[in-house]
Hints:
It comes from Aristolochia fimbriata (White veined hardy Dutchman's pipe vine). Belongs to the EXORDIUM family. This protein is an alpha/beta fold. The protein is 21% helix and 23% strand. The strands form 6 sheets. A 6-stranded mixed sheet has the order 1-8-9-6-3-4. Strands 2-10 form a two-stranded antiparallel sheet.
Amino acid sequence: MRRSSSSFSSSILYGFLLSVFLLVSAAGAARTEPSALVEEQPLVLKYHNGLLLKGDYTFNVVWYGKFTPSQRAILIDFVQSLTLNPGRSASPSPSVASWWKTTEKYKAGPTNLRLGKQISDEACSLGKSLRTGDIVRLASKVSGRNVITAVFTAKDVAVEGFCMSRCGTHGSARSATNPKSRFAYVWVGNPETQCPGQCAWPFHQPIYGPQTPPLVAPNGDVGVDGMIINLATVLAGTVTNPFNNGYFQGPPEAPLEAVSACPGVFGTGAYPGYPGKTLHDGPTRSSYNARGVNGRKYLLPAMWDPRTSSCSTLV
């Protein structure tokens, strides 16, 4: 994590934690003895008395690098699936919206997202090798009050720490127009060519651990379907731990948050190398566990439920 007087960020170590989880579990599985089996303790994310993002928020997007219209639609449809807005009918169950409702259990109250501005920087004005400060600069272009800004980087754009220690980031920075206020931002990169085994599992075989066959991506795009998993991770962390004093476990510079506390779990019965129960689309043989707008299907990670102190899945 990088801190300054103007910004701080919480790196989502989902891919890194997943790799370690698979590696350690695979190594230990061969030597597990009955005497070593103990009752698993409840997972607890402590609330540190900070502000949470509750209420109505505008979701702005910065597209950095080249994304196809199809890729943009997959990501935008996911965002629009999170909140049931007026004029839209509810998606069939299990839905993206029902997954998002788990965040309401964090100090009670919904976070409603409405799609706002979208800007494109296909020419990559800051180059194709970005640092964390560059992400903040890009996000600040469409920042504001009650705004969450997402920066999506294309598959050929390198970002500091990407693949090595993180698949995405969320944080906050001071507003350029009002230095007394802060805005929240998230960043997610397309891992298609750089690290699909780390940041697009289970749609690609992992670098470490059991080498089970990958699942078929529900939208036919391994990189962007992987981005959905990581976007879900950072968004849940953003609203439940926006300023590093919300819900988390461990040190604030490397916190386990709402979703990152449940690595590798997408359905019931999950274990190392197996993401758990999923639903299957007959024609494409793809795997999913949530339905969204425009007939979309997504695979979403488990989220910690503060009422049960456990990782909750949709199926």
